[in-house]
Amino acid sequence: MEYDVVDVQPLTPTALQVRFADGTAGEVRSEPSHLTGVFEALKDPIVFAQARIEAGAVTWPGDLDLAPDVMYAEIKSHGKWILH
Known about the structure:
Layout: E1 5-12, E2 15-20, E3 25-30, H1 45-48, E4 52-54, E5 57-60, E6 64-65, H2 68-78, E7 80-83
Parallel strand pairs: 3-7
Antiparallel strand pairs: 1-2, 2-3, 4-5, 5-6
């Protein structure tokens, strides 16, 4: 699908560069207020840097993932997706 993530690179301890199957690319940034609950583990830069792709989605150990369709829509519209 066009919104399948095909490349992910950590930029900072809270930001990623992603590229989708159709060539769309942009930044995903997590604000500290988003890193709570199940996402608390991503406050650890070592864990955050373990971002990888599984089935077209950005994932981390511990069954954490980001919805690629929402990410795609935000990046297509704004060039980035900021998680608050």
